[in-house]
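A quick aside before the break. I want you to see a complete sequence-to-structure record at least once, exactly as it would be stored in a machine-readable document. Don't worry about memorizing anything.
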Amino acid sequence: MFYLIGLGLSEKSISLEALDACRKADKIYIEYYTVEFPYSIEKLERVIGKRIIPLTRIMVEHEEFLEEVRKKDIILLVYGSPLTATTHISLILKCKELGFEYRVFENSSILDAVCETGLQIYKFGKTASMPKWEEKHKPKSFIDIVKFNQLIKSHSLILIDIGLDYGDALKQLQEVCKGKIKLDKIVVCSKLGTEDSRIYYDFLPGLYGKEVYAPFCFIIPSSLHFLEEEALNELKND
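That is the input. The structure line, written in tokens, reads:
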């Protein structure tokens, strides 16, 4: 049997039924490349009570570890919700192709947690990802998604790639928006779903120097319902 298990947002968010599967499994893997975890693998091992083996992106995408399912119960742990990444649905399709039994344990993700801001989930548009810039490679196409969302009056969730720190991410956003969109107040979310979660709402200059740690994301709001505006203003007051 192959188990694809969503971990949720903190080391204690794993469901009871998923935890039971982990304790009975022969081997537990974790993919560690799609997001910067807010806790260590060692902390998760203490919760589960078993050793966890990290897999690289290449190992997951090549799907060779699935061959072990012929003789063992294998688990792949995924931060947040287990099927938000296309790589993971590919694993389910591979199991179907090989005739392997599988089970998916769902969990919460950043897409659920952003509702804590007071913004209504059905008013979000397409999700964008901000990559870390290199000296000779500064992709800016993610801002086109924001422009489209604003056109249809939808909020924009911008996920931040691994390795991009908070200050640099703000600078990248500021540079990309010049001449393309007008930035009003934006929302910054840090470590949502954990005991150390933070939410800030301000104009971009006022967001520098805030206590923000990975994983974090930006939200560029569009037109606000009065309840959304009230919730965001309360955040600013906090």
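Two observations worth writing down. The mean pLDDT is 93. The two ends are 48 Å apart (CA to CA). We'll return to this after the break.
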